[in-house]
TrEMBL record:
The keyword Transferase does not apply. Keywords: ATP-binding, Nucleotide-binding. It comes from Accipiter nisus (Eurasian sparrowhawk). One of its GO terms (biological process) is mitochondrial respiratory chain complex I assembly. One of its GO terms (cellular component) is mitochondrion. PANTHER family: IRON-SULFUR PROTEIN NUBPL. The keyword ATP-binding applies. One of its GO terms (molecular function) is ATP binding. Pfam families: ParA. The lineage of its organism: Eukaryota, Metazoa, Chordata, Craniata, Vertebrata. This is Nucleotide binding protein like. Transmembrane segments: none annotated. Coiled coil: none annotated.
Amino acid sequence: MPPGTGDVQLSVSQNIPIAGAVIISTPQDVALLDARKGAEMFRKVHVPVLGLVQNMSVFQCPKCKHETHIFGADGVRDLAKTLGLDILGDIPLHINIRETCDSGQPVVISQPQSDAAKAYLKIAMEIVRRLPVPPT
């Protein structure tokens, strides 16, 4: 869902059974405010927060490979510590992610061995590992 704790988020969390929530944020301060509100809202409505994902965590120059933390370095990690939650992983700011999504072939399909695809797959495995086992 989009960031925030408005009517849509509350309605969904109160009317649809949710096994868990994943909070995704860039590491910049203004985004972290919404991430914190979202985590707190899910806790209030008794939806387990499975963890946090740091999106656009680092940009690597395709020419020289220099890494830059455009949105800050560890904001989501710091928030996770404050809230007592786990970090599920980091998604880099990479042109291949945008290009493959725009072409209809997400990076996990079109470039499954790439570092970007591995980042998504690691997060997916962490989410599945934290989901409650459904009753039989």
